């Protein structure tokens, strides 16, 4: 029997011929396209270490591993030779009938009544069928534990190219998969699967059978290679250049000729990704003098020697947040990246606002540390729709800082870049984003392994590792296990050393195969340590002899009315006619109210407002302006104050003479306090102010008891002990019985919540690399309770993104919706059927806690709701009231939009 070229692999977006017949791309051509791309991905994109992981697992030479990888990539869609796929109602049609309908009329392609209703996906069909054929040709296999052997492992990873792995297929099912899934078909269906398998094997040039075992690291690399190759081979405009003429038979000679076409096209496909050519330059010799004793000098002298002797690994830095700490972490990343042959860096922070503020410094680092072309993306919830367009908007906002968005700039990809997609964005050479982008790699979400693959060629820097709560800390440990198993160089930066930092060190050691003995981060501050990824051994370098930025933090707690105390604290700055201050309020509404009050009552004060419920572009522009005004050497002609919310507490580069804050847990207060600079930093805490409803009541009370009317803290020496002190039992012991009992009850509730969070995270996280036992399906296990809402709650308070639309009329007098009041150029209705371009909305997105909009249905049309990218975007059509305010009213809340952002008031 000959290969049947009527079996189609691609059809959508390929256009029609002169007769109006839809073009299709034969399945065998798509399989060969993918195999050809896999060869180029192996040669040009995988790091030396990634290739060695695969070769070592398969127990073959590098060139043989390359051939096997291309062969397996070429088999990824063989499950499309099945009844449900070929005769799917969404398939190519002509004259109202499916083009593949003729198959069902031929005796060999006959199928039973249940075959067309078989709900098995083509990815799962590939997994089920390939297990048996690999066993037939001699791949290692096992009847009792199939997942432990290569025949099942390769089939399972190929079945996972759609983003999720499928459960183990046991021997009784692999012998006759069509018995359980009639949609796979018998007769010609089975014969064509075998013919396609044999022809792909012959054309690619596979002549041997590997005898190794699939390690977790090799599975990650091969899954990433196959998935990425499939994505590239599926670019529609490129497929149109390789379409075969009508009547193309797919004979062996035809396939050999097409293989040369596919191989010639593959490098061009990879060049479209903006992924090639990036690496780390050899770090320059340290500019620190031999006599310097600070953190940066200590690390610059010793990290290169440690890496040269032991290879790349993880560097852990504990010091108060500062730009100096960031620079030390980035320098360590450059050393690790060059030694590992890494192709990029991902810088992870607790919040999107912190990522926004760091992007300029990370970009400046890349200018010096990275070689070749590189692309930079902004990756957090407000940029996720279109990361490249978010980066462009960020660049425009930061143009005053020397980052230009003019055409021709090389660092940011264009809006129509292949990388401008959520699932692909982490592949970019340089990413600045939130830590949840890492944590999703160890949660059972779609394409989680693709995230691990993308990170396995990079250096990962995690700034403020403490800032994610019990959920995040538990998931971070699992991520570090996988990072060590994949030999990913990591730099962790934390405010102070404690048990959670020790646990992170232990997790990386465990993933690298190190011993189980306890490890401890140096408790002095600043301090640092190193774990090599090769053996998992810990190394304690000579610690910094002192801190170049030793200072005293003066904390004052005041009891008066919040606004009155704010005025009193700012009075000296106003009287002196100079000075810079930050005022933290608990909600955007309170921040806006304080902004208006200060502007009215203190006319000599230059007041700036930033909060999270501003549109992206406004928030980026104001933050960029603040990075100039409140920079260490910023020039201000009048006393200046920044009114904000907790969103800015992890932002770097903002320096103040005074920080004023409402009640907050001690760690958050200290994060805000370090923004006050000078020999005597100053923090004023407003005891009578409202606390955030998201803050833990026990920690708020403990912090208040610890601070009393105020205290003086020597930084950084006393910082670790102060953070430990807030949890001490002595705080409760000093209280009278009724009060102590109440605080103890609050403590118990906090511990229960944290225990529940850690337990749920333990239930939710994927197994560690040493716990898989060969079953990749455990990385995609389908818990009944794993809904998007749960995943969001793990990663932080669940948010939706609001876009506010203003009514207007176009030039023909028709009603339209505008993204900016009165600006016709920003109308929403630019595409057919009212479907907006997701990237068009990025500058106007406003993150809002979901709890505040649960009763809002919004005004999105059906076309909008059907777009996956906009599932989490809520559209509000505003109406103008008589007083000029723009509002939207839901059953429970009133939304008011002004130039100062969005406020949400609960209705009585």
UniProtKB/TrEMBL annotation:
Domain HD Cas3-type: 20-232
PROSITE patterns: HD_CAS3
One Pfam family linked to the record: Cas3_HD
Keywords per UniProt: Antiviral defense, ATP-binding, Endonuclease, Helicase, Hydrolase, Metal-binding, Nuclease, Nucleotide-binding
GO MF entries: endonuclease activity
Family: In the N-terminal section; belongs to the CRISPR-associated nuclease Cas3-HD family.
Record protein name field: CRISPR-associated endonuclease Cas3
Species of the source: Streptomyces albipurpureus
């Amino acid at each position: 029997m000959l290969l049947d070229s009527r079996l189609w692999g691609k059809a959508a977006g390929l256009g029609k011929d002169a007769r109006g017949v839809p073009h299709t791309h034969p399945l065998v051509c798509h399989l060969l396209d993918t195999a050809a791309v896999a060869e180029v991905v192996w040669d040009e994109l995988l790091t030396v270490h990634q290739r060695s992981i695969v070769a070592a697992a398969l127990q073959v030479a590098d060139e043989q591993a390359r051939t096997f990888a291309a062969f397996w990539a070429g088999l990824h869609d063989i499950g499309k030779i099945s009844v449900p796929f070929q005769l799917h109602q969404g398939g190519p049609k002509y004259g109202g009938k499916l083009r593949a309908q003729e198959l069902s009329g031929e005796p060999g392609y006959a199928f039973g009544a249940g075959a067309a209703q078989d709900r098995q996906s083509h990815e799962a069909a590939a997994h089920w069928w390939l297990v048996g054929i690999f066993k037939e040709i001699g791949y290692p296999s096992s009847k009792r534990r199939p997942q432990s052997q290569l025949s099942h492992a390769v089939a399972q990873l190929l079945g996972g190219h759609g983003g999720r792995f499928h459960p183990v297929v046991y021997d009784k099912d692999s012998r006759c998969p069509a018995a359980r899934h009639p949609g796979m078909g018998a007769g010609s269906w089975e014969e064509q699967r075998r013919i396609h398998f044999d022809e792909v094997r012959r054309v690619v040039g596979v002549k041997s059978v590997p005898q190794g075992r699939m390690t977790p690291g090799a599975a990650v690399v091969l899954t990433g290679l196959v998935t990425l190759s499939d994505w590239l081979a599926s670019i529609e405009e490129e497929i149109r250049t390789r379409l075969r003429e009508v009547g193309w038979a797919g004979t062996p000679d035809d396939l050999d000729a097409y293989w040369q076409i596919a191989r010639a096209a593959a490098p061009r496909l990879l060049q479209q990704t903006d992924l090639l050519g990036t690496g780390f330059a050899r770090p320059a010799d340290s500019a620190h003098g031999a006599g310097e004793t600070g953190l940066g000098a200590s690390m610059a002298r010793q990290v290169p020697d440690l890496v040269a002797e032991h290879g790349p690994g993880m560097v852990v830095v504990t010091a108060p947040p500062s730009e100096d700490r960031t620079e030390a972490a980035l320098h360590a990343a450059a050393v690790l990246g060059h030694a590992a042959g890494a192709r990029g860096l991902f810088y992870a922070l607790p919040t999107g606002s912190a990522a926004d503020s760091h992007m300029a410094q990370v970009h400046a680092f890349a200018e010096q540390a990275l070689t070749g072309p590189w692309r930079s993306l902004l990756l957090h919830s407000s940029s996720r729709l279109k990361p490249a367009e978010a980066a462009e908007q960020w660049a425009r906002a930061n143009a005053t800082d020397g980052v230009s968005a003019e055409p021709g700039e090389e660092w940011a990809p264009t809006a129509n870049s292949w990388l401008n997609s959520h699932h692909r964005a982490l592949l970019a050479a340089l990413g600045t984003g939130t830590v949840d982008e890492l944590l999703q790699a160890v949660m059972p979400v779609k394409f989680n392994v693709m995230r691990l693959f993308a990170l396995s060629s990079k250096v990962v820097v995690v700034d403020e590792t403490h800032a994610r709560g019990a959920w995040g800390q538990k998931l971070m440990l699992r991520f570090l296990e996988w990072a060590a198993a994949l030999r990913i160089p990591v730099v962790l930066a934390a405010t102070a050393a404690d048990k959670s930092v020790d646990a992170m060190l232990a997790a990386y050691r465990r993933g690298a195969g190190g011993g189980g003995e306890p490890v401890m981060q140096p408790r002095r501050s600043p301090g640092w340590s190193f774990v090599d990824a090769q053996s998992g051994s810990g190394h304690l370098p000579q610690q910094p002899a002192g801190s170049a930025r030793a200072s005293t933090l003066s904390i004052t707690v005041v009891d008066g009315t919040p606004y009155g105390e704010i005025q009193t604290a700012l009075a000296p700055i106003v009287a002196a006619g100079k000075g810079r201050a930050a005022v933290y309020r608990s909600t955007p509404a309170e921040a806006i109210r304080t902004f208006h009050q200060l502007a009215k009552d203190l006319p000599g004060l230059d007041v700036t407002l930033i909060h999270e419920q501003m549109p992206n572009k406004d928030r980026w522009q104001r933050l960029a302006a603040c990075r100039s005004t409140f920079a260490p050497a910023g020039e201000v002609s009048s006393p200046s104050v920044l009114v904000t919310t907790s969103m800015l507490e992890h932002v770097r580069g903002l320096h103040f003479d005074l920080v004023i804050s409402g009640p907050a847990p001690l760690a958050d207060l200290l994060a805000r306090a370090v923004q006050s600079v000078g020999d005597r930093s100053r923090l004023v805490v407003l005891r009578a102010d409202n606390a955030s409803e998201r803050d833990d009541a026990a920690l708020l009370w403990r912090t208040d008891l610890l601070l009393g009317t105020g205290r003086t803290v020597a930084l950084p020496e006393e910082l670790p002990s102060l953070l430990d002190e807030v949890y001490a039992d002595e705080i409760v012991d000093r209280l009278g019985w009724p009060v102590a009992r109440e605080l103890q009850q609050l403590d118990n509730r906090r511990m229960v919540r944290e225990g529940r969070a850690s337990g749920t995270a333990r239930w939710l996280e994927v197994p560690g690399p040493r716990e898989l036992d060969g079953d990749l399906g455990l990385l995609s296990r389908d818990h009944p309770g794993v809904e998007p809402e749960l995943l969001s709650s793990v990663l932080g308070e669940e948010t939706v993104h609001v876009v506010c639309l203003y009514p207007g009329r176009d030039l023909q007098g028709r009603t339209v919706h505008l993204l900016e009041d009165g600006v016709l150029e920003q109308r929403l209705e630019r595409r057919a059927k009212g479907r907006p371009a997701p990237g068009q909305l990025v500058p106007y997105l406003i993150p809002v806690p979901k709890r505040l909009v649960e009763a809002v249905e919004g005004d999105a049309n059906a076309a909008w709701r059907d777009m996956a990218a906009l599932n989490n975007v809520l559209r509000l059509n505003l109406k103008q009231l008589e007083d000029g305010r723009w509002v939207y009213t839901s059953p429970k809340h009133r939304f008011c939009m002004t130039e100062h952002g969005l406020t949400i008031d609960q209705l009585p």
